[in-house]
Amino acid sequence: MMRQAVIGQFIPGNSFLHRLDPRTKITALTLYVIILFFAVGWGYAAMAGLALLGVVAGRLPLRYILEGLRPLVFLLIITMAFQVFLTPGTVIWHLGILKVTREGLVQGLYMALRLLLLVMTTSLLTLTTSPIALTDGLESMMRPFARLGVPAHEFAMMMTIALRFIPTLIEEADKIMKAQMARGAEFSSGGLTARARSLLPILVPLFVGAFRRADELALAMEARCYRGGEGRTRMRQLKVHAVDFVALAVTVGVAALVWRLRRGV
Asked: Among 32, 93, 116, 238, who pairs with 100 as Cys (CB 3.0-4.6 Å)?
């Protein structure tokens, strides 16, 4: 299950989303995330429809995207439980001190859907944008802040490497867990304290491996004479085309619709 995470992975292609300028995709994703927190009622349907449209435009298998959301099941259950049991309102079921309210159930479903859409749209960005293009896009968008002393290139490189290493670390954690289980380790038995202790044989080698990979990456970059972003040139220059304006127009249109639905409630 752990290897099914899709955030940070890149699938080469020539779809509509693949051809978009990375700055366009970052801007559209930022607007999507902001307006998602203002969605209410049918606004969530509009946001979900836009996310599904992105899957189609990226020519990505919907089953692959949904399987990548499976690691979030436990987090979704916890999020919904907090909303269902702690939100005051009309009680529809109770057992002792536990009370399920209609308002809490609705709020829990909205929170779960919001989390799913956040992960889904973020995955669309990484799946259809190469690490190099993502770094160039972030650096270009943060370049105006360089006058304030913000290291735009280094910051963009750091964010891209972090995203790229997510699937790598998840895969390594999965290998470590299977190796420990082959040696007789138990991760699903016992109380909360016992389960927390059983994670130590996974976390320690995982952190050691992460630091080792970081050191190897630093050595590889130094061997290629990497000295930061100053004076660097690019083989491919970023250019905005008509398809970028179409994508932004669709995103802005859905955002305006969601905002109008919110004002109408």
From this structure: 93
Report the chain's C-alpha Rg in angstroms: 22
pLDDT attached to residue 231: 63
β partners of residue 91? 101
Q: Looking up tokens 């770094």, which residue turns up? A: 135
Q: pTM value?
A: 0.75
| Cα–Cα distance, 110 to 175 (Å, whole number) | 35
Q: What is the pLDDT of residue 214?
A: 83
Interacting residues of 116 by C-beta distance below 8 A, sequence separation 6+: 69, 72, 76
Give residue 154's identity as a one-letter amino acid code. E
Q: Which of 165, 104, 126, 149 is nearest to 29 (CA)?
A: 126
What does the CA dihedral 253, 10, 72, 83 come to, rounded to 10 degrees? Answer: -20
Chain centre distance of CA 39: 19
Other Cβ atoms less than 10 A from the Cβ of 230: the count is 7
Task: Give pLDDT < 50 ranges for the chain.
Answer: 1-3
